[in-house]
Design goal:
Length: about 260
């Protein structure tokens, strides 16, 4: 498994806003994470009592309100989103790979402590899933915007099952953002204009492969039209000095005081 990226790869990331990292875990680790997330959804393992868990809808409409809980409430594989996975020992261990520490050192400085804004399972259940419109992840509740997210495929992801699509180079542009949202969603007119100028790249990945994404890179995904789930794990790494608008700090992943799998 890779322990670092090259200068050329980092230059590519800065220019295009994304980088395919290839396979970042072995088959045993992959199987362990696949089983773990299913056990979390089904309530077979105890989870952090504040873990954010959101069920998928039946329509696939992003704007539809979904059932959301803190802690586990329903035994089902139809969760759309589960956050706070840095409090799970298996997922935390994965998040702390040397490769990701090296990426954070390039993004934020070699001696900078690193926290995570969110460590998030993203699921498109078989034959379902939610259409995610083109948008940038610009978190207006933070005093500093993160720039590095690692998206890992827990299943083989394809266009048919709703893989992430990106628009290369768009991390260098900003789009209008409402005060009430953490994201900048394109209007239909904006999307038509952008996609006429730059063709999207669809990040089809094998299970166990990952991609590095700049948070401001335009991205989106469609519903899952296949009979198998499309499970992914997304981690937004940031400078641990980052604060929310209320002064809240976030879980440290690398550096002094970092979470450890053994303590969870």
């Amino acid at each position: 498994m890779p322990q670092q990226i090259t200068d050329g790869q980092w230059t590519q990331f800065k220019e295009e806003g994304y980088l395919r990292l290839g396979k970042v875990m072995d088959d045993d680790e992959l199987a362990g994470l696949q089983q773990r997330i299913n056990d979390i959804m089904l309530g077979k393992v105890k989870v952090h009592d504040q873990m954010y868990m959101q069920l998928d809808s039946d329509t696939g409409d992003y704007s539809e309100k979904r059932i959301t809980t803190r802690g586990h409430q329903v035994s089902t594989l139809n969760y759309r989103k589960i956050q706070d996975l840095e409090f799970d020992p298996l997922f935390l261990s994965y998040m702390q790979k040397p490769l990701f520490r090296e990426i954070c050192a390039r993004a934020y400085g070699p001696d900078t402590p690193i926290s995570c804004y969110r460590a998030m399972f993203m699921n498109k259940p078989a034959g379902k899933g939610t259409h995610l419109p083109w948008h940038q992840d610009r978190f207006n509740i933070l005093d500093t915007n993160p720039i590095a997210t690692v998206w890992t495929a827990l299943d083989r992801v394809t266009i048919e099952n709703g893989c992430v699509g990106v628009v290369p180079g768009t991390h260098r542009s900003t789009f209008e953002q409402g005060d009430s949202t953490a994201f900048a969603f394109l209007t239909e007119e904006q999307a038509t204009t952008v996609l006429a100028e730059t063709e999207p790249e669809y990040l089809e990945l094998e299970a166990g492969e990952a991609a590095l994404l700049h948070n401001w890179l335009l991205h989106g995904s469609n519903v899952n039209t296949t009979d198998r789930p499309r499970r992914g794990f997304s981690v937004c790494y940031m400078d641990a000095a980052t604060r929310s608008e209320s002064g809240t700090t976030f879980s440290t992943i690398f550096g002094e005081g970092a979470l450890s799998p053994e303590s969870l």
